[in-house]
Protein backbone atom coordinates (compact mmCIF):
# COMPACT_ATOMS: atom_id res chain seq x y z
CA UNK A 1 0.00 0.00 0.00
CA UNK A 2 1.43 3.36 -1.07
CA UNK A 3 1.38 5.88 1.78
CA UNK A 4 3.20 8.90 0.38
CA UNK A 5 5.32 9.96 -2.56
CA UNK A 6 7.40 13.14 -2.60
CA UNK A 7 9.53 14.82 -5.23
CA UNK A 8 11.49 18.05 -5.65
CA UNK A 9 13.23 19.56 -8.66
CA UNK A 10 11.59 17.04 -10.96
CA UNK A 11 10.66 18.87 -14.17
CA UNK A 12 7.94 21.42 -13.31
CA UNK A 13 7.86 20.43 -9.61
CA UNK A 14 10.67 22.69 -8.41
CA UNK A 15 9.42 22.96 -4.83
CA UNK A 16 8.82 19.82 -2.82
CA UNK A 17 5.45 18.24 -3.57
CA UNK A 18 3.79 15.53 -1.53
CA UNK A 19 1.28 13.03 -2.91
CA UNK A 20 -0.34 11.46 0.13
CA UNK A 21 -2.45 8.32 0.21
CA UNK A 22 -2.97 8.60 3.97
CA UNK A 23 -6.37 9.84 5.12
CA UNK A 24 -6.38 13.51 6.10
CA UNK A 25 -7.38 14.24 9.72
CA UNK A 26 -10.98 15.15 10.51
CA UNK A 27 -12.29 13.91 7.16
CA UNK A 28 -15.60 12.10 7.52
CA UNK A 29 -17.71 10.10 5.11
CA UNK A 30 -17.03 7.37 2.56
CA UNK A 31 -15.22 5.29 5.15
CA UNK A 32 -15.42 2.28 2.83
CA UNK A 33 -12.51 3.96 0.99
CA UNK A 34 -10.31 3.66 4.07
CA UNK A 35 -7.91 0.78 4.60
CA UNK A 36 -6.92 0.45 8.24
CA UNK A 37 -4.02 -1.50 9.68
CA UNK A 38 -1.57 -1.20 12.57
CA UNK A 39 2.22 -1.24 12.61
CA UNK A 40 3.88 -1.35 16.03
CA UNK A 41 0.67 -0.12 17.63
CA UNK A 42 0.28 2.86 15.31
CA UNK A 43 -2.76 2.89 13.05
CA UNK A 44 -2.41 3.56 9.34
CA UNK A 45 -5.51 4.86 7.53
CA UNK A 46 -4.72 4.46 3.84
CA UNK A 47 -6.84 5.65 0.92
CA UNK A 48 -7.95 3.14 -1.69
CA UNK A 49 -8.12 5.65 -4.54
CA UNK A 50 -7.17 9.11 -5.74
CA UNK A 51 -8.00 11.23 -8.78
CA UNK A 52 -5.84 14.09 -10.09
CA UNK A 53 -7.23 17.15 -11.87
CA UNK A 54 -5.61 20.08 -13.64
CA UNK A 55 -5.39 21.80 -17.04
CA UNK A 56 -3.22 20.59 -19.89
CA UNK A 57 0.54 21.01 -19.26
CA UNK A 58 -0.08 21.67 -15.55
CA UNK A 59 2.06 18.73 -14.43
CA UNK A 60 -0.42 15.89 -13.84
CA UNK A 61 1.63 13.54 -16.00
CA UNK A 62 4.86 14.80 -14.38
CA UNK A 63 3.86 13.57 -10.93
CA UNK A 64 3.14 10.11 -12.36
CA UNK A 65 6.33 10.34 -14.42
CA UNK A 66 8.33 11.04 -11.25
CA UNK A 67 6.96 7.86 -9.67
CA UNK A 68 7.87 5.95 -12.83
CA UNK A 69 11.43 7.33 -12.83
CA UNK A 70 12.07 6.42 -9.19
CA UNK A 71 10.73 2.93 -9.86
CA UNK A 72 13.06 2.56 -12.89
CA UNK A 73 16.11 3.81 -10.95
CA UNK A 74 15.50 1.46 -8.02
CA UNK A 75 14.99 -1.57 -10.27
CA UNK A 76 18.17 -0.98 -12.28
CA UNK A 77 20.15 0.05 -9.19
CA UNK A 78 21.96 3.09 -10.59
CA UNK A 79 21.52 6.63 -11.95
CA UNK A 80 23.16 5.97 -15.28
CA UNK A 81 21.19 6.11 -18.51
CA UNK A 82 20.00 2.86 -19.99
CA UNK A 83 19.66 1.67 -23.56
CA UNK A 84 16.29 0.13 -22.73
CA UNK A 85 13.80 2.00 -24.93
CA UNK A 86 10.62 0.07 -24.23
CA UNK A 87 9.41 2.61 -21.65
CA UNK A 88 7.13 5.36 -22.99
CA UNK A 89 8.68 7.69 -20.39
CA UNK A 90 11.93 9.09 -21.89
CA UNK A 91 13.05 10.52 -18.53
CA UNK A 92 13.17 7.01 -17.05
CA UNK A 93 15.98 6.05 -19.43
CA UNK A 94 17.63 9.45 -20.10
CA UNK A 95 17.89 11.20 -16.72
CA UNK A 96 19.18 14.46 -18.21
CA UNK A 97 15.54 15.14 -19.15
CA UNK A 98 14.56 15.42 -15.48
CA UNK A 99 15.91 18.85 -14.32
CA UNK A 100 13.65 21.87 -14.75
CA UNK A 101 14.44 23.49 -18.10
CA UNK A 102 14.11 27.02 -16.66
CA UNK A 103 16.88 26.59 -14.08
CA UNK A 104 20.33 27.94 -15.03
CA UNK A 105 22.05 26.02 -12.23
CA UNK A 106 21.54 22.38 -11.43
CA UNK A 107 19.73 21.49 -8.22
CA UNK A 108 19.58 17.99 -6.72
CA UNK A 109 16.49 16.00 -7.62
CA UNK A 110 14.71 14.45 -4.66
CA UNK A 111 12.45 11.40 -4.48
CA UNK A 112 10.82 9.79 -1.48
CA UNK A 113 8.41 6.87 -1.29
CA UNK A 114 6.77 5.43 1.80
CA UNK A 115 4.74 2.25 1.66
CA UNK A 116 3.29 -0.46 3.85
CA UNK A 117 4.08 -4.08 3.16
CA UNK A 118 3.45 -7.39 4.88
CA UNK A 119 5.82 -10.35 4.72
CA UNK A 120 4.76 -13.58 6.36
CA UNK A 121 3.79 -12.44 9.89
CA UNK A 122 5.76 -9.18 9.73
CA UNK A 123 4.38 -5.70 9.00
CA UNK A 124 6.66 -3.00 7.69
CA UNK A 125 6.27 0.72 7.07
CA UNK A 126 9.14 1.38 4.68
CA UNK A 127 10.49 4.82 3.75
CA UNK A 128 13.10 5.14 1.01
CA UNK A 129 14.64 8.52 0.09
CA UNK A 130 16.96 9.35 -2.79
CA UNK A 131 18.56 12.67 -3.75
CA UNK A 132 20.63 12.81 -6.92
CA UNK A 133 22.74 15.47 -8.64
CA UNK A 134 22.08 15.39 -12.39
CA UNK A 135 23.35 18.84 -13.38
CA UNK A 136 21.19 21.03 -15.61
CA UNK A 137 18.59 20.11 -18.20
CA UNK A 138 19.98 18.12 -21.19
CA UNK A 139 23.54 17.91 -19.79
CA UNK A 140 24.14 14.27 -20.61
CA UNK A 141 27.88 14.45 -19.88
CA UNK A 142 27.48 15.81 -16.32
CA UNK A 143 29.27 13.63 -13.71
CA UNK A 144 26.24 12.39 -11.78
CA UNK A 145 26.27 11.42 -8.15
CA UNK A 146 24.00 10.30 -5.36
CA UNK A 147 23.78 13.09 -2.76
CA UNK A 148 21.75 11.29 -0.11
CA UNK A 149 20.11 7.89 0.19
CA UNK A 150 18.17 6.78 3.27
CA UNK A 151 16.17 3.74 4.34
CA UNK A 152 13.83 3.76 7.35
CA UNK A 153 11.72 0.82 8.54
CA UNK A 154 8.94 1.38 11.07
CA UNK A 155 10.50 4.75 11.87
CA UNK A 156 13.95 3.29 12.58
CA UNK A 157 16.95 4.35 10.41
CA UNK A 158 18.46 1.31 8.69
CA UNK A 159 21.06 3.27 6.75
CA UNK A 160 21.70 6.92 5.97
CA UNK A 161 24.03 7.85 3.18
CA UNK A 162 25.50 11.29 2.47
CA UNK A 163 29.22 12.06 2.32
CA UNK A 164 29.61 9.11 4.65
CA UNK A 165 27.52 6.04 5.40
CA UNK A 166 25.80 5.54 8.74
CA UNK A 167 24.43 2.10 9.54
CA UNK A 168 21.57 2.22 12.04
CA UNK A 169 20.13 -0.24 14.50
CA UNK A 170 18.80 -3.10 12.40
CA UNK A 171 16.83 -4.74 15.17
CA UNK A 172 13.58 -4.15 13.28
CA UNK A 173 14.76 -6.37 10.39
CA UNK A 174 16.92 -8.78 12.40
CA UNK A 175 15.14 -11.84 11.00
CA UNK A 176 16.14 -10.74 7.49
CA UNK A 177 19.86 -10.17 8.11
CA UNK A 178 22.54 -12.55 6.92
CA UNK A 179 24.37 -14.67 9.51
CA UNK A 180 27.65 -12.98 8.58
CA UNK A 181 26.24 -9.57 9.48
CA UNK A 182 25.23 -10.66 12.98
CA UNK A 183 28.68 -12.03 13.75
CA UNK A 184 30.95 -9.34 12.26
CA UNK A 185 29.18 -6.02 12.73
CA UNK A 186 32.20 -3.70 12.83
CA UNK A 187 34.06 -5.20 9.89
CA UNK A 188 30.87 -5.49 7.83
CA UNK A 189 30.11 -1.80 8.40
CA UNK A 190 33.58 -0.85 7.20
CA UNK A 191 33.22 -2.98 4.08
CA UNK A 192 29.85 -1.33 3.40
CA UNK A 193 31.37 2.17 3.57
CA UNK A 194 34.08 1.17 1.12
CA UNK A 195 31.53 -0.30 -1.28
CA UNK A 196 29.87 3.02 -2.12
CA UNK A 197 29.77 4.10 -5.75
CA UNK A 198 28.60 7.63 -6.56
CA UNK A 199 26.29 6.39 -9.33
CA UNK A 200 25.00 3.18 -7.72
CA UNK A 201 22.29 2.75 -5.12
CA UNK A 202 23.54 1.38 -1.83
CA UNK A 203 20.15 -0.29 -1.33
CA UNK A 204 20.41 -2.62 -4.32
CA UNK A 205 24.17 -3.05 -4.29
CA UNK A 206 26.15 -2.85 -1.03
CA UNK A 207 23.22 -3.27 1.37
CA UNK A 208 21.77 -6.16 -0.63
CA UNK A 209 25.09 -8.03 -0.92
CA UNK A 210 26.46 -7.34 2.55
CA UNK A 211 23.49 -7.05 4.90
CA UNK A 212 20.22 -8.50 3.67
CA UNK A 213 19.41 -9.91 0.28
CA UNK A 214 16.09 -11.10 1.70
CA UNK A 215 14.86 -7.68 2.85
CA UNK A 216 15.96 -5.96 -0.34
CA UNK A 217 14.05 -8.63 -2.27
CA UNK A 218 10.93 -7.68 -0.29
CA UNK A 219 11.40 -4.03 -1.33
CA UNK A 220 12.19 -4.83 -4.97
CA UNK A 221 9.20 -7.17 -5.18
CA UNK A 222 6.98 -4.25 -4.14
CA UNK A 223 8.51 -1.97 -6.80
CA UNK A 224 8.29 -4.71 -9.42
CA UNK A 225 4.87 -6.21 -8.78
CA UNK A 226 2.87 -3.80 -6.64
CA UNK A 227 3.99 -0.30 -7.67
CA UNK A 228 2.35 -0.46 -11.09
CA UNK A 229 2.97 2.89 -12.77
CA UNK A 230 1.49 3.21 -16.26
CA UNK A 231 2.95 6.31 -17.88
CA UNK A 232 1.15 7.43 -21.04
CA UNK A 233 -1.62 4.85 -20.97
CA UNK A 234 -2.46 5.63 -24.59
CA UNK A 235 0.72 3.79 -25.58
CA UNK A 236 0.14 0.87 -23.22
CA UNK A 237 0.29 -2.56 -24.76
CA UNK A 238 0.08 -5.58 -22.54
CA UNK A 239 2.24 -8.34 -23.97
CA UNK A 240 1.29 -11.84 -22.91
CA UNK A 241 3.91 -14.54 -22.52
CA UNK A 242 3.06 -18.20 -22.21
CA UNK A 243 5.09 -21.15 -21.03
CA UNK A 244 5.85 -23.61 -23.85
CA UNK A 245 3.58 -21.83 -26.35
CA UNK A 246 2.25 -23.51 -29.46
CA UNK A 247 2.55 -21.59 -32.70
CA UNK A 248 -0.73 -20.38 -34.18
CA UNK A 249 -2.59 -21.54 -31.07
CA UNK A 250 -5.28 -19.21 -29.68
CA UNK A 251 -5.19 -18.56 -25.95
CA UNK A 252 -8.40 -17.18 -24.47
CA UNK A 253 -8.29 -15.95 -20.88
CA UNK A 254 -11.80 -16.49 -19.55
CA UNK A 255 -11.79 -13.59 -17.08
CA UNK A 256 -10.47 -11.00 -19.53
CA UNK A 257 -12.73 -12.29 -22.30
CA UNK A 258 -15.78 -12.13 -20.02
CA UNK A 259 -14.93 -8.55 -18.95
CA UNK A 260 -14.35 -7.55 -22.60
CA UNK A 261 -17.78 -8.89 -23.57
CA UNK A 262 -19.38 -6.85 -20.78
CA UNK A 263 -17.43 -3.82 -21.95
CA UNK A 264 -18.39 -4.41 -25.59
CA UNK A 265 -16.50 -6.14 -28.40
CA UNK A 266 -17.24 -6.52 -32.11
CA UNK A 267 -16.20 -10.17 -32.27
CA UNK A 268 -17.25 -13.41 -30.62
CA UNK A 269 -14.24 -13.44 -28.29
CA UNK A 270 -10.76 -12.01 -27.76
CA UNK A 271 -7.60 -14.00 -27.25
CA UNK A 272 -3.86 -14.12 -27.81
CA UNK A 273 -2.14 -15.68 -30.82
CA UNK A 274 1.54 -16.51 -31.27
CA UNK A 275 2.66 -16.29 -34.87
CA UNK A 276 5.51 -18.19 -36.54
CA UNK A 277 7.87 -15.21 -36.70
CA UNK A 278 7.12 -13.45 -33.38
CA UNK A 279 7.76 -14.97 -29.92
CA UNK A 280 5.30 -12.70 -28.14
CA UNK A 281 1.55 -13.19 -28.15
CA UNK A 282 -0.60 -10.44 -29.68
CA UNK A 283 -4.25 -9.64 -29.11
CA UNK A 284 -6.67 -10.99 -31.69
CA UNK A 285 -10.42 -10.86 -32.30
CA UNK A 286 -11.92 -14.32 -32.75
CA UNK A 287 -14.91 -15.00 -35.02
CA UNK A 288 -16.99 -18.06 -35.68
CA UNK A 289 -16.89 -18.95 -39.34
CA UNK A 290 -20.45 -20.23 -39.82
CA UNK A 291 -19.68 -21.60 -43.28
CA UNK A 292 -16.61 -23.69 -42.44
CA UNK A 293 -17.50 -24.24 -38.79
CA UNK A 294 -14.06 -22.99 -37.72
CA UNK A 295 -12.81 -20.06 -35.68
CA UNK A 296 -11.02 -17.23 -37.50
CA UNK A 297 -8.62 -14.86 -35.74
CA UNK A 298 -8.02 -11.30 -36.94
CA UNK A 299 -5.63 -8.81 -35.33
CA UNK A 300 -7.70 -6.87 -32.77
CA UNK A 301 -6.31 -3.52 -33.88
CA UNK A 302 -8.00 -4.05 -37.25
CA UNK A 303 -11.44 -4.89 -35.94
CA UNK A 304 -11.87 -3.61 -32.37
CA UNK A 305 -12.18 0.03 -31.31
CA UNK A 306 -9.24 1.85 -29.74
CA UNK A 307 -11.12 2.09 -26.44
CA UNK A 308 -11.84 -1.64 -26.41
CA UNK A 309 -8.18 -2.51 -26.94
CA UNK A 310 -7.12 -0.10 -24.21
CA UNK A 311 -9.61 -1.67 -21.82
CA UNK A 312 -8.46 -5.22 -22.62
CA UNK A 313 -4.82 -4.20 -22.08
CA UNK A 314 -5.63 -2.50 -18.79
CA UNK A 315 -8.11 -4.88 -17.17
CA UNK A 316 -5.55 -7.62 -16.30
CA UNK A 317 -3.61 -4.94 -14.36
CA UNK A 318 -6.77 -4.12 -12.39
CA UNK A 319 -7.13 -7.82 -11.60
CA UNK A 320 -3.47 -8.05 -10.55
CA UNK A 321 -3.80 -5.04 -8.26
CA UNK A 322 -6.89 -6.46 -6.54
CA UNK A 323 -5.31 -9.90 -6.16
CA UNK A 324 -1.96 -8.68 -4.80
CA UNK A 325 -2.87 -5.47 -3.00
CA UNK A 326 -0.96 -3.46 -5.56
CA UNK A 327 -1.07 0.25 -6.31
CA UNK A 328 -2.18 0.88 -9.91
CA UNK A 329 -1.24 4.37 -11.14
CA UNK A 330 -2.45 5.29 -14.61
CA UNK A 331 -1.92 8.40 -16.71
CA UNK A 332 -5.13 9.33 -18.58
CA UNK A 333 -6.93 6.29 -17.18
CA UNK A 334 -10.24 7.31 -18.74
CA UNK A 335 -9.08 8.05 -22.29
CA UNK A 336 -11.43 6.36 -24.80
CA UNK A 337 -13.21 4.37 -22.10
CA UNK A 338 -16.83 4.99 -21.18
CA UNK A 339 -17.33 6.55 -17.70
CA UNK A 340 -19.72 3.77 -16.64
CA UNK A 341 -16.97 1.16 -17.11
CA UNK A 342 -14.57 3.33 -15.13
CA UNK A 343 -17.14 3.85 -12.39
CA UNK A 344 -17.46 0.08 -12.05
CA UNK A 345 -13.69 -0.33 -11.71
CA UNK A 346 -13.52 2.46 -9.12
CA UNK A 347 -16.33 0.82 -7.16
CA UNK A 348 -14.35 -2.44 -7.10
CA UNK A 349 -11.48 -0.63 -5.32
CA UNK A 350 -14.02 0.91 -2.92
CA UNK A 351 -15.68 -2.43 -2.15
CA UNK A 352 -14.45 -3.81 1.18
CA UNK A 353 -15.74 -7.29 0.33
CA UNK A 354 -13.68 -7.44 -2.89
CA UNK A 355 -10.67 -5.24 -2.15
CA UNK A 356 -9.54 -7.40 0.75
CA UNK A 357 -5.81 -6.97 0.01
CA UNK A 358 -5.85 -3.14 0.17
CA UNK A 359 -5.29 -2.40 -3.52
CA UNK A 360 -5.19 1.24 -4.66
CA UNK A 361 -6.15 3.08 -7.84
CA UNK A 362 -4.61 6.45 -8.75
CA UNK A 363 -5.25 8.26 -12.01
CA UNK A 364 -5.35 11.68 -13.61
CA UNK A 365 -8.21 12.90 -15.75
CA UNK A 366 -9.99 15.84 -17.37
CA UNK A 367 -13.42 14.29 -16.90
CA UNK A 368 -15.33 16.26 -14.22
CA UNK A 369 -17.76 13.38 -13.60
CA UNK A 370 -15.48 12.06 -10.85
CA UNK A 371 -15.74 15.34 -8.90
CA UNK A 372 -18.51 13.82 -6.86
CA UNK A 373 -18.80 13.82 -3.06
CA UNK A 374 -20.59 10.46 -3.24
CA UNK A 375 -17.69 8.86 -5.12
CA UNK A 376 -14.46 10.36 -3.74
CA UNK A 377 -13.45 11.77 -0.39
CA UNK A 378 -12.00 15.28 -0.28
CA UNK A 379 -8.54 13.91 0.54
CA UNK A 380 -8.75 11.60 -2.49
CA UNK A 381 -9.27 14.49 -4.94
CA UNK A 382 -5.97 16.13 -5.92
CA UNK A 383 -5.22 19.17 -8.07
CA UNK A 384 -2.13 20.22 -10.01
CA UNK A 385 -1.71 23.87 -10.96
CA UNK A 386 1.12 25.49 -12.92
CA UNK A 387 2.14 29.14 -12.63
CA UNK A 388 2.14 30.90 -16.03
CA UNK A 389 5.18 33.04 -15.17
CA UNK A 390 7.49 30.63 -13.34
CA UNK A 391 6.15 27.47 -15.08
CA UNK A 392 6.36 25.70 -11.71
CA UNK A 393 3.72 23.18 -10.62
CA UNK A 394 2.11 22.74 -7.23
CA UNK A 395 0.10 19.78 -5.95
CA UNK A 396 -2.66 19.97 -3.36
CA UNK A 397 -5.77 18.12 -2.20
CA UNK A 398 -9.36 19.29 -1.88
CA UNK A 399 -9.10 18.56 1.84
CA UNK A 400 -6.35 21.22 2.13
CA UNK A 401 -9.03 23.93 1.87
CA UNK A 402 -10.52 22.99 5.24
CA UNK A 403 -14.24 23.19 5.98
CA UNK A 404 -14.67 26.75 7.23
CA UNK A 405 -14.33 30.24 5.77
CA UNK A 406 -15.06 31.53 2.28
CA UNK A 407 -12.92 28.88 0.62
CA UNK A 408 -13.86 26.01 2.93
CA UNK A 409 -15.10 22.81 1.29
CA UNK A 410 -17.88 20.90 2.98
CA UNK A 411 -18.65 17.22 2.62
CA UNK A 412 -21.67 17.36 0.32
CA UNK A 413 -20.86 20.41 -1.80
CA UNK A 414 -21.17 20.52 -5.57
CA UNK A 415 -17.49 19.85 -6.28
CA UNK A 416 -17.94 19.91 -10.04
CA UNK A 417 -19.81 23.22 -10.08
CA UNK A 418 -17.31 24.88 -7.74
CA UNK A 419 -14.40 23.61 -9.83
CA UNK A 420 -15.76 25.16 -13.02
CA UNK A 421 -16.04 28.59 -11.39
CA UNK A 422 -12.39 28.24 -10.32
CA UNK A 423 -13.18 27.84 -6.61
CA UNK A 424 -10.34 25.34 -6.25
CA UNK A 425 -7.94 26.60 -8.94
CA UNK A 426 -6.23 24.13 -11.29
CA UNK A 427 -8.43 25.22 -14.19
CA UNK A 428 -7.65 27.45 -17.13
CA UNK A 429 -9.99 29.65 -19.14
CA UNK A 430 -9.17 29.05 -22.80
CA UNK A 431 -10.65 31.16 -25.59
CA UNK A 432 -9.54 30.50 -29.18
CA UNK A 433 -11.85 33.19 -30.61
CA UNK A 434 -9.11 35.88 -31.02
CA UNK A 435 -7.03 33.49 -33.15
CA UNK A 436 -9.88 32.98 -35.61
CA UNK A 437 -10.75 36.69 -35.57
CA UNK A 438 -7.15 37.40 -36.55
CA UNK A 439 -7.33 34.82 -39.36
CA UNK A 440 -10.52 36.44 -40.71
CA UNK A 441 -8.95 39.92 -40.45
CA UNK A 442 -5.98 38.77 -42.54
CA UNK A 443 -8.30 37.26 -45.11
CA UNK A 444 -10.18 40.56 -45.30
CA UNK A 445 -6.95 42.45 -45.93
CA UNK A 446 -6.25 40.27 -48.96
Automatic annotation (TrEMBL):
Record has Nucleus as a keyword: no
InterPro entries assigned to the protein according to its UniProt record, in alphabetical order: ATPase_AAA_core, P-loop_NTPase
Ranges annotated as spanning the membrane: none
Domain ATPase AAA-type core: 51-371
Keywords noted in UniProt: ATP-binding, Nucleotide-binding
One term of GO molecular function: ATP binding
Descriptive protein name: ATP-binding protein
Source species: Extibacter muris
